[in-house]
Each structure stands twice: as structure tokens, then as C-alpha cells.
Amino acid sequence: MLKKVLSKCLINNKLAAFLIILGSISWSSTMIKSGFKYEYGYGFWGANGYDGVWHIALINNLARFNFENPVLSGELIKNYHIGFDLFIAILHLITSIPVKTIYFQLFPPFASIILGFLTYHFVYNWTKSIKSSLFALFFIYFGGSAAWILNLGESAFWSQQSISTLINPPFALSLIFILLGLIFMQKGKILLAILSFGVLIQIKAYAAILVLGGLFVSIFYSYILHHTSYILKIFLGSLILNLLLFFLVKNDGLSTFVWQPFWFLETMFAASDRLPWPKMAEAMLSYKNQSVITKFILSYGLAFAIFIFGNFWTRLLLVKDLFKKIDLYKIFMLSIVLAGTIVPTFFVQTGTPWNTIQFMYYSLFFAGILAGISVSQLVTYRKSIMLIVVLLTIPTSFFSLINNYLTKIPPAIVSNQELVALDFLNMQEDGVVLTYPFDTAYNPKQIPNKIPLFKYSNTSYVPAFSRKNIYFERTNVEIMGYNWEERRKKALDFFITTDIDKAGEFLNKNKIKYLYLVKEMSPLYGELFKVDSSKLGLVKIFENEVSIIYKYDKNFGGS
To answer: 428 and 396 share a domain?
Structure first.
């Protein structure tokens, strides 16, 4: 199948090949600079210093067949989809290519090229129109928000845009499997469609929910109008496989989504890093709390219109052909577009409310395909429309790349000195590492670039680059439902206690073997820690100008 797609795109349509190559370069540019060794150490752009480093830490564990949470030693991964990380871990084991190289430099161009090929193939098979396929490619690669008009970032209206697809690699991988499922549906290959849709729960749970919903709605069209159980079989098979894989990773039955209507609308205006309009935010909350119904409806209606208009922007051209040529695939995609918009409007995710906006990523992707088909019809009658659409769409991608990903100096780094320390720790025998818990007070806002990761964010860079689990870090623990507050308190208590027996008991109970300490953090406590290291059984095994590593011998000191 891939050979046929390559033939159609590269040989029969050079413009399609050009769009795929240009789009893939654009997408990959958000990733490939991160994780490289520069004169100052490893550099990280965008969210890669947080999300990327977390995935590397988790992948390293999975590659050792270790299913513990790398930032909460002794706790198994739970309430989390591990499909992408398992996929990269397998690639690492097969090829011996370093995990960070696969993650930052190899997977991005691979995924973006494959996504382009599959999109072209699906749309062409569906519409039999090269022009529709080309415009669909344009929108999936370059679709953006209206934020650039206001000189704001791409996610000013909350949702990330096409340019940031690979910043969330599980999202990109889930799109590949969704498109594969749709193509197999086109070819009547039920089992392969079920397999493609059925694994989504462990790649991206949001995708599984939306795809199953889209298939469910599509059943009515296929069964009632065409009297076929074809989609019903795919839906039931996909549902069963998703449920089976759902329990592959520990799940404690948490209520992942909670009812909190209009949270994104309210915070869109209230947050300084979105679309700051404090008076509007205050007015909305006032009308809501005082039950001023008319003004409540008007203000929230306006906010929702801005939310939709700002996020979808030129993709709203899909409405031109919204009710034309209704068929199975249009119903499936419109169901995802609607559901992916409605869910975050009324629900937020436990622990990290803004995570629910990821439903809309799928809405924007499929809205882009539908908009591409609509625009291709418009261009047939008025060629100037193409230029207008392109000029209104691409600034989001352009400015996002220029301002966030193609800057010479990265916002976050792991210095050469720390890399030496982490490499040394990596060479030691396995054991749990204790580090200073991240605190927002560490973040020096006066330094705009090259902030060390220990100051930049609650990031899992220590397990990522030492290949050892740490006692506590806050990365993603909220969304997975851990009791992290208690663990953080115990870690902080260790560094301030003067009771050597209490300190020894803490280290023994939690099987801590190493302390990885950054000297710059010591002013927070006055010194690295309060107890006498020699009496406690801590032996200094490494020190440079940035880091100190202690090894704990429980038979030497403590209780």
C-alpha cells in the first residue's frame, strides 16, 4: 500500500510531494534541534524540556522492561497511555539508536512524512480529486489560528495548531493509526481497520474516545440508510480491543473528566498567556455567579464564538460544503470535529484541567481535511481565493517557528557540567535517586534563555539522562492520580531535618541509594541538607562545579 501511495505522491503529483516535504520540514523543525549537544550542553525548545524529557525517561524504563513511573520510584505507571513510548522503546532495542535521537531527530520526519502520504491517499481515494487532496495536505500541515492577527502565540485561543503536532508525538502517532483505519475501511479490510482503531487507547486515549464515538454515529448512517452492518462490526471489534488494552496499564477507576462548563472560555480571557481581556473575564463570571441570564448567554455566546473562530480560523471554510455529498466518511469526521469541540467546552481533566483541550486537536485536524475539500471547490471558480486562504493561514506556522523553535539560543538546557554528573550516575549500579523537588521559586524570570532544567520546570531530566528512577518529581503525576503531595513533603522534610535517625529511616524505607544535588539549590535550605553526611552513611562519589552525588550505605549509618 505504501508503495502505491509513494507512487501517486512522488511520481504522479510533484506538487503533493513538495507539500509533504515542506510540511514535514516545518513540523520537524519544532523537534530536531532539541536534545542535540551544543557548546553549552543539551538544548530544548518549546515544550520539549518538559514533555520530551518525560517521554525519554519513560521510554528508558520500558526499554529495560521496567513499568515503574520514573519520577515516583516504586509506583507502577497507571492511568496513562504507553503505546507511543513502548513503540520507541522497541525501536531502540532493535536498532540500538539512542532514545533521544529517535525521539527528537528520527521519529518527527518519519511521522510527518507518513501522515502526509496517508492523508493524500485517504482523501484521494475518497474524493477522487487531486485538488482536494492537495488542499487537505495544506491544511493539515499549515492550518493555524487567528492569533497572529493580534500578535499573540498560536495557542492564544487555547488549542495548539498544526505546526505543533509533533510536540505531542503520541498525538501524531494516533493520527497515523486513525488514517490507516480509515484507509482499511475504504478497502473493506475489517480486521485491519479494527486493529488500527483498537490500539488507540494505549496511544492516545482522547483519540480512542473520539474515534469510537465517530464509528458509533456512523453506524446509523450505514445501517439505517444502507442496511449494512459493516461499520457495526468495526465499531464492536474496536471497542472490545480498546477495552482489553485499557486494562493493560494499571487503572484505579479515577474519574478522569469532571463537569466544569466553560472553563476554557473563562480562562481564555483571564490568563495572561492566552487572550488577555480581564474585564471580559470578570463580567462573564459576574453574570454567571449572579444568574443574570440574558447577559450570561450573550457574554458566553460571544466567548464561544471567539473560541471557535480563533481556533478554527480558515478551517471554518468547511461549512461551505457541510451538507453536500453526505457520506460515511464525512459523518465520521464531522462527529469528531463536533465531539472534540464540545467535550472541552463542558469538561476538564482531573489534576490538569487544560489537558482536555487535546480533544480539539483532532477536531482541527479533520476540520482541515474538510476545509481543504471545500476550498478546492472554491478555487475552481475563483483562483484568487487560493492566495487569500494561503496568506491568511500560514502566518501562524511561520511566526510560531520563528519565535519559538528556530531561535539560536534555547529557553532551557542541561549544562555540560550536569551532563558529566548525570553520565557518571548512569554508570553506577541501579538504585533510587533522591533530588531536590522543583519549586517555582527557583525559576529566575529575569533570565529569558538557557535556563537549566532544574530551574525551568518540574521536569524528569534526571531519570531521563541517568536512566535511574527518582523518588519524586511532579511531572504528569496529577493526571495519573498519584498522591504526590505527601511524597513531595517527605522529600522536603529530609532536606531540612536535623534528626539523623529520621533521615536514615526515610532513606531506608524508600530504598534510596543516591542523592543527586545541584549546588545552586542549596541557598533554599541554607546548605545541601542539615544532617551530618558521614554519620548518616552518605559517601560523596562525585562533585564538580554544578552537581554533587552521594551514595547511601544503609549499613554504615542511620537507623
So the answer is: no
Cα angle for residues 51, 422, 415 (degrees, 5° grid)? 70
Quickly list H helices, 96-187.
Answer: 99-101, 107-127, 130-142, 169-186
Question: In the chain, what's the furthest Cα-to-Cα distance?
Answer: 84
Per-residue HEC secondary structure of 437-448 comes to CCCHHHCCCCCC
- Together in a domain, 247 and 101: yes
Question: What is the spatial distance between Cα 469 and Cα 464, in angstroms, rounded to a whole number?
Answer: 9
Under a CB-based contact definition with an 8 Å cutoff, are residues 534 and 557 in contact? yes
* Helix-then-strand count for the chain, H and E: 24, 10
For 233, residues 6+ apart whose C-beta sits below 8 A from its C-beta are 190, 194
153 and 284 share one domain: yes
- Residue 380 sits in the same domain as residue 291: yes
Specify if 557 maps to a domain. Answer: no
d(CA 342, CA 339): 5
pLDDT tens by residue, 160-219: 999 999 999 999 999 999 999 999 999 999 999 999 999 999 999 999 999 999 999 999
CA–CA distance, 516 with 542 (Å, rounded to integer): 9
CB atoms within 10 A of CB 385: 15
User: Per the domain annotation, does 179 fall within a domain?
Assistant: yes
Strands (E), 162-298: 257-259
* Pair (280, 216) in one structural domain: yes
pLDDT tens string 474-509: 888 888 888 889 999 999 999 989 899 999 999 999
**Are both 378 and 435 inside the same structural domain?**
no
Angle of helix 130-142 relative to helix 14-28, nearest 10 degrees? 10
Is 49 among the domain residues?
no
User: Which residue segment(s) compose the domain that 254 sits in?
Assistant: 2-30+78-405
Q: Note every long-range contact of 234-241, with CB atoms under 8 Å and residues 24 or more positions apart, other chains counting.
A: 234/185, 234/190, 234/193, 234/194, 234/197, 237/190, 237/191, 237/194, 237/198, 238/181, 238/193, 238/194, 238/197, 238/198, 238/211, 238/212, 239/212, 240/198, 241/194, 241/195, 241/197, 241/198, 241/199
Mean local confidence (pLDDT), 121-146: 96
CATH classification of the domain holding 496: 3.40.50
Considering just the CA atoms, what is the radius of gyration of the chain in Å?
Answer: 25
Domain count, the chain: 2
Q: What per-residue confidence (pLDDT) applies to 558?
A: 46
Residues 323 and 401 placed together within one structural domain of the fold:
yes
Per-residue pLDDT, 556: 58
Q: Compute φ and ψ for 548, nearest 5 degrees.
A: -130, 135
Domain for residue 56, yes or no?
no
What number of CA atoms fall less than 13 Å from residue 179's CA on the CB side? 27
